[in-house]
Write a structure and sequence with these properties.
This protein has ten helices and 13 strands. With about 375 residues, the protein is α/β, with parallel strands linked by helices. α8 packs parallel to α9. The chain starts with 6 loop residues before the first strand and ends in a 7-residue tail after the last helix. Its cofactor is dipyrromethane. One of its GO terms (cellular component) is cytoplasm. Pathway: Porphyrin-containing compound metabolism; protoporphyrin-IX biosynthesis; coproporphyrinogen-III from 5-aminolevulinate: step 2/4. One of its GO terms (molecular function) is hydroxymethylbilane synthase activity.
Length: about 375
């Protein structure tokens, strides 16, 4: 039995995928630190509770993280595991991303209704209905398949599969390939979309571990699984998104290439209907020899990510690539596209709130709920 000083409490959402991801991190840490005992504390987030609204219509950037962060700030857990794409680029000053785990596939995947087994998107008939909760996916794919109808689909992976297979509403759904593989459901993948077909979300496929900023014990524990290439790519992507002040409410996408000598980031801003887009690419050379990893960073975080055991010079370059690419886009029509997308989603949030209020009033009238 581990001593109480070696017991680590880990926060996680209750969904099957979240627990798979949390246990992946725990198992790796156990392998490296067998003297520790890890206890999982599960909780439900706002995003888990609101399933009848599109993510972009809820109006919050921390739908799947805030409750976990509150538990972290209160000392109820020592760290929490996230899909990094769910974690806002700006988090509380008391918290940090202690490590970024090695990235799995960053690409999106198509899962077909059983009646379309063996087909790809281009094989589907006109007016096919594609389920996705992502404005980014819908905006990009509507350019390539203008007759398709993109409908919101929410819920955990199990729920979305059930809706696809049983409701007869959707011809296909689009999901992150990484999540499907982690769940062992890669046999349902009909097609993996390349960056030319659908650029991916910032940090998609990467898992992050968030902890308290001053918790040296936990930060030291996490430093052993901080993956350099993944962290560098995600710093660039998150810096790009942070400068654009985007999130799930606007169609922003990326594609990153990292070699030993160069970091290249391609980023895109789309209108919500997909009819307008601006893409650009920016790159920087990486130093041939690593700098002194002990060089001072003065506590600087890189889109909330700690340098940890990673050369801070590489982190600075990655941050510059993302920020500078965003600035290039903001100097073009992308700024107007982004502003309009934000206005549209703000209106959609207000309309969704009004719809829910009307529903509540109607249910109260019918005696389905008790008015307070």
């Amino acid at each position: 039995m581990a001593s109480t000083t070696n017991v680590v409490k880990v926060g996680s959402r209750k969904s099957q995928l979240a627990l798979v991801q949390t246990n992946t991190i725990i198992n790796k840490l156990k392998e490296l630190n067998p003297e520790y005992e890890f206890v999982v504390v599960t909780m439900t987030t706002t995003g888990d509770n609101i399933l009848d609204s599109a993510l972009s219509k809820i109006g919050a950037k921390d739908l799947f993280t805030r409750e976990l962060e509150l538990a972290l700030e209160a000392g109820e857990v020592d760290f929490v595991v996230h899909s990094l794409k769910d974690l806002p680029t700006r988090i509380a000053d008391t918290l940090v991303i202690g490590c970024v785990y090695k990235r799995d596939s960053e690409f999106d995947a198509v899962v077909m209704h059983p009646k379309h087994k063996g087909k790809k998107l281009e094989d589907l008939p006109e007016n096919s209905v594609i389920g996705t909760s992502s404005l980014r996916r819908a905006a990009q794919l509507s350019r390539k398949f203008p007759t398709f109808k993109f409908e919101n689909i929410r819920g955990n992976l199990n729920t979305r599969f059930k809706k696809l297979d049983e409701d007869e509403k959707y011809d296909a759904i689009i999901l992150a390939e990484a999540g499907l593989v982690r769940m062992g459901w890669d046999d349902r993948i009909a097609q993996v979309l390349t960056s030319d077909e659908c650029m991916y979300a910032v940090s998609q496929g990467a898992m992050a571990v968030e902890c308290r900023a001053g918790d040296r014990k936990t930060l030291t524990l996490l430093s052993d699984i901080h993956h350099q290439d993944t962290a560098i790519a995600c710093i660039a992507e998150r810096a790009f998104l942070r400068r654009l002040e985007g999130g799930c409410s606007v169609p922003v996408c990326v594609s990153t290439k990292l070699s030993k000598t160069k970091l290249t980031l391609t980023g895109g801003v789309f209108s919500i209907d997909g009819k307008q887009c601006v893409l650009d690419t920016h790159s920087k050379d990486l130093p041939e020899e690593p700098a002194n990893k002990k060089m001072a960073t003065n506590g600087h975080l890189f889109a909330a990510i700690v340098p940890g055991n990673i050369d801070p010079a590489l982190c600075h370059i990655a941050e510059e690539v993302g920020t500078e690419l965003a600035n290039l886009l903001l100097a073009t029509e992308a700024a107007n596209i982004l502003a309009e997308a934000k206005e549209q989603t703000a209106r959609a949030v207000m309309e969704e709130k009004a719809r829910k209020e009307r529903e509540m009033v109607e249910k109260t009238k019918q005696g389905e709920v008790t008015a307070e």
